[in-house]
Amino acid sequence: MNISLPALLSQLLLGLVNGSFYAILSLGLAVIFGLLNVINFAHGALFMLGAVLTWMAMEYLGVNYWVMLIAAPVLIGLFGVVIERLLLRWIYKLDHLYGLLLTLGLTLLIEGVFRSVYGVSGLPYDAPELLSSATDLGFMVLPNYRAWVVVASLVICFATWYVIEKTRLGAYLRAGTENPRLVEAFGVNVPLMITLTYAFGCALAAFAGVLAAPVMQVSPLMGQNLIIVVFAVVVIGGMGSIMGAILTGLGLGVIEGLTKVFYPEASSTVVFVIMVIVLLIRPAGLFGKEK
User: Residue 107 belongs to what domain range?
Assistant: First the structure.
């Protein structure tokens, strides 16, 4: 197979863009599972909500992209507060299966509502004018918006990792999941902290949705296929591992891009093949802690 270097580098960059979406979505899942012990299957629906709300605000209210990049995560974060306080708080002491089934049911409900209103056809919106041009890199012409997606995702991902792993707030969050009574003794409101943690994970999904909409079709089902891949990313990186979610998401996006060059037929399954191999060798994931 004769593959030119420009074509290879182009696929690497496109793979990095997809990997950015995987990283930020799997980060939200890892934060929620690592700190709340809940498998949040509603993450794909929240990703879709971020994109659809942005499309609605731009289409009906004339709100621009940059405002919605902040407003959509805030609104979906508030929705996450409602979900956590009304539903999830009752199942924390139960088996993981209950959380998965509850959030799966919530996903079907959310997707069903928007599908009945908008159908399943795509509702794309254009990239903001500031990022609508492209840059000639020599081996490819890179749309500036795709470069923005990578930069924005990396900044959010590593800022989140730093807060959780390197600050006092992060220490309280981690300790609150293991010994809530001890943390409460220091005057920390653990139930509020848990609620805000879930809301933040939901906001990350919405942020990814706003970023993704100019790249993919906005549809009530846009998160359905993506969330399966993202769950595989989280399993490979290690359930609850923040850095594992980020690095694995970026890495698998690149591997997927390379697979499209050398063996396109396997590009849709390569992530799952890697997941099987990793689970056979290291069941806790690449960055997960063995129990």
Answer: 5-281
